[in-house]
Structure formats: C-alpha cells, structure tokens
Design goal:
One of its GO terms (biological process) is regulation of neurotransmitter secretion. The chain has about 475 residues and is α+β, with helices and mostly antiparallel strands. The protein has helices at about 75-85, 220-225, 240-270, 290-305, 310-325, 350-390, 395-415, 420-435, 445-450, 455-460, 475-480; strands spanning about 5-10, 15-25, 35-40, 50-55, 60-65, 95-105, 120-125, 130, 145-150, 160-165, 175-180, 190-195, 205-215. The termini are far apart.
C-alpha cells in the first residue's frame, strides 16, 4: 500500500523504444473495491494518462512446502468448497475458484551448463499471476516439493509451467514447458508431463511431475465465459515467420474450401445440376435422377413453408448432439524470425547515401509490418472458423454443453416470444449499459464465448504427450550419431 510508479513508453516500427513520461499514484489514499477514475499529468512531457484503478484484496495466492498443504486439511478444504458451492453462485462473481498445484520434481532435464549439469527452477503462470520455485543447483533431476495456490478468475485459463536454468546475471536458459487447460485437470492425481519446446508443438528433453486440485463454481464459470477475457500483461509479441504464415494460409484455405463446397452443393441443388451428395448418394441406386430432384424440390417447399426462427438454434443444438455421439478431431503447427542493416562512411555523397539507406530501411520495416499484419489477420480468420467447428465437435465438453444449453434456451424463447420483443429487450440493454455502469467495457458475448474455445493450433499445444510416446529431437540426433 505505497506509491505506484507508472511509466509510459512508445515503440515504433523499427523496434526502438522511448520513455515518454512518468507519473505516480498513492495507493493508500484510494478506497477498496471501488473503480477510481484518475487523470494523471505526465511529469516529463505534455499529456495526461486516464486510467481506472480498483483495489481488490487478493485471496488464495500462496507458496508453501509440501507438509503445509492448504487443501490437505479436511476442515480448510470443506470451508473452501463451501465458498464455491452453488448457494454462493451470485456472490463475488470474479472469484470463480481456487487451484492448488504441487510441483514435485523433474527428471532427465537438458544439461545447460558446461559441467553437464543445470541449475533448474520452475515458473508457474496462470493468467497474470506468476509464482516460482527456488533454484536447485547442479542437478538434472531436481525435487522442489512446493505447493502453489492460485485464485481462478476464468475457468478457461491455461496453467503454464516452464522450467528454466538459472544463469547468474544473464537471462535464464529455457529447459522445457507444458501448458495445462484448467478444465483438463484430474484432481488429486500425480501426473507426469513430457516437457515441450517454446512453441509447445514438439517434445523436448525431460518430464515434470505435478499434482493439481481444482475447486470452482460452475455457474460463476459459465457467466464469466460471456465476459471479455483478461489480457495478459506480459505477452510475447508475435514474430514474423515464413512457417507460421504458410501454415495460416493453409488453415484459411481449408476453411474457405469447406465454405465453397457447401455453397456449391446448395447451388447445384437449386440449379438441378447434380443429385444430393453424401447422405442421399446411396438413394441413386434405386431412384432415378428426376425422382431425387423432385424430392429435393418438395423438401425445399415443405421446409420454407414450415420454417420458424426457433428452428435455427434447434438445428445447431442437434448438430452438437450429433457430434457428441460421433466426435471428431484436428491438428496443426510452429515459429521463426528475420531483420537488420549497416552503416556508410564517405565524404562527398555521405548525406545522399545515408538518406537513401534510411529510405531502404524504412521500406524493409514497412514490408515486415505489412506481412506481419497479414499473418495476424490470417491467423485470426483461421482461428475464428476453427473455434466455431470445435464448439460443435465437443473439443471442450464444458463449452459445448454450455452452447447446447444456450441454444436450447434460445429455441424455447423464440418459440414463445415474438422476435420484435427480444430485439427490443436486447436494444434497451445495450443502450442503457453505459448509464447503469459508466466504466463498463463494450463487448460481444458471442465473440467472448468463442475466444475461450481452442483453435486447432491450441489443441496441439495443449495436448498431453505420454512419456515415451514421442522421442525428443535431441534424443533422435543422438540415436543417429
């Protein structure tokens, strides 16, 4: 509860960073659990910083030894379970649950030092919460035996566990990483996770043993799904990569071909160019071409005549149920980078050459920015299509069940309530939102829901590798030698 120092930085396309100004906030003077709107003048430059500050006591974050385990005590566990019971579903909506992680040990880590050993420590990240273990020196099979407790704000967050090698004053060396979605946690079981590379797409060297316990309120978790996702404060910027670009092009191409084939199928039915494919293909053996076309026409007439708006969510619900009975899957994967330039030294044409050089460098950076933007747009488009597909594929059962529930409610609502009343209620809610809550963030509930569904790339990143199921690249190299 002291002084909060704030720095404002600017970053241009050349990756140059410059500090623009600073300001201070006295945290102790602000009231708790209340949104405080502050307009702070910057000290070393013109301009002000407009910000909202809310002080909320953070419960649940802790680091302890294995002998002092919060959820191991029956009375404390009962108290926590009662806090997140269904009776308390409408209390403190941001407090969704609690996660306890036991970091037991790692085995067969990569030797990062010249001595053939490593100085490993483990970093755990859940949303914007970061905790780490102590360092065990000169060891490839460290045993940390630490217990970490995190408050869960979003049940769709992913726990990232990264093992590093401490390297004195230098940045730590990477030794492996795993990403574990909270909804995939098996309570109270000791699990062995194969460490992956930085991209989480290939096996690395070594395994880590974790034991996790998750207690959460499903109603709070469901409501939280339709609100904006918390942005990561520390996030790696996306690098320009030929491999990622070609992968995203392929993903968009697959998505486009699926849409195109569907459109072609529908137009062929209306133009009577071909018979119904797939599901009705076997009927052609017994029926003539004219009969199939007449049946298609009759189905069209009956469907249009009897169509009601509630049938759309009903059809989507049936698609969910169908994919629940016959689930499907999908995969993808990887990353890289490029850049830089030189100087000139001459007397007569020094200014001209330097300006030419600056112009060339500017163009290189401009091209990089354009290609990077295209790469990000392609990734967003591909991810959007894959997330819709994975919602109906039951990739995350919690989200698919929630979608089915919402579609069932929408079906019943549209059946009994006229559409104009629903639009009227929705419009009143949207227009009065700022009056009811001046600091409310504009959001789209459908997009917020889809942001929680993993794309095909994320499915690969979150997939758990079994020990011995896939060889590490390092082991493959050694075996060939």
């Amino acid at each position: 509860m002291g002084i909060l120092d704030i720095e404002v930085w600017g970053k241009d396309s050349k990756k140059h960073e410059e500090r623009l100004g600073t300001c201070k906030v006295d945290i102790s003077a602000l009231p708790l659990k209340q949104a405080n709107c502050l307009e702070l003048p910057l000290e070393s430059c013109l301009g002000t910083l407009l910000m909202l500050v809310t002080l909320t006591p953070c419960a649940g974050v802790s680091v302890s030894d294995l002998c002092v385990c919060p959820l191991a005590d029956p009375s404390e566990r009962k108290q926590i379970a009662q806090r997140f019971s269904l009776r308390n579903s409408l209390k403190n909506m941001k407090d969704v649950g609690i996660l306890q992680v036991k970091v037991l040990k790692a085995v067969d880590l990569l030797a990062a030092d010249f001595s053939g050993k490593s100085d490993p420590f483990c970093l755990l990240e859940l949303g914007n919460d970061r905790l780490q273990t102590h360092t065990i020196y000169k060891n490839l099979n460290p045993e940390w035996n630490k217990v970490f407790t995190f408050p869960v704000k979003d049940i769709h967050d992913v726990l990232e566990v990264t093992v590093f090698d401490e390297d004195g004053d230098k940045p730590p060396d990477f030794l492996g990483k795993v990403a574990i979605p909270l909804l995939s946690i098996r309570d109270g079981q000791t699990n062995c996770y194969v460490l992956k590379n930085k991209d989480l797409e290939q096996a690395f060297k070594g395994v880590i043993y974790l034991e996790m316990d998750l207690i959460y309120n499903p109603i709070k978790a469901s409501i939280r799904t339709f609100t904006p996702r918390e942005k990561r404060f520390v996030e790696d910027s996306r690098k320009l990569s030929k491999k990622i670009l070609s992968r995203d092009v392929d993903r968009v191409k697959r998505l486009t071909m699926t849409v195109w084939n569907t459109v072609q199928f529908l137009t062929s039915c209306f133009r009577w160019e071909s018979t119904l494919r797939s599901t009705v293909a076997f009927v052609q053996k017994w029926l003539s071409l004219e009969t199939v076309e007449v049946l298609t026409f009759l189905v069209f007439l009956v469907t249009v005549w009897n169509f009601e708006l509630y049938m759309i969510p009903l059809a989507l619900s049936l698609l969910c149920v169908y994919n629940f009975i016959r689930p499907t899957m999908g995969k993808v994967g990887s990353i890289q980078d490029s850049q830089e330039s030189t100087d000139v030294d001459e007397e007569k044409y020094e200014d001209d050459k330097e300006s030419e050089k600056k112009g060339l460098i500017e163009r290189i950076y401009m091209v990089q920015d354009i290609v990077s933007t295209v790469q990000n747009i392609l990734e967003e488009i591909a991810s959007f299509g894959e997330r819709i597909k994975n919602t109906f594929n039951w990739t995350v059962p919690f989200l698919s069940f929630l979608a089915c529930l919402i579609l069932a409610v929408a079906t019943i609502t549209l059946y009994f309530i006229p559409l104009r009343y629903i639009i009227l209620i929705w419009g009143i809610n949207k227009f009065t939102k700022k009056f009811r809550n001046p600091y409310a963030i504009d959001n789209n509930e459908l997009l917020d829901f889809l942001s929680r569904v993993p794309s095909d790339v994320q499915k690969v990143q979150y997939a758990e590798l079994k020990p011995g199921s896939s060889q590490s690249p390092l082991r493959k190299k050694r075996s060939t030698l």
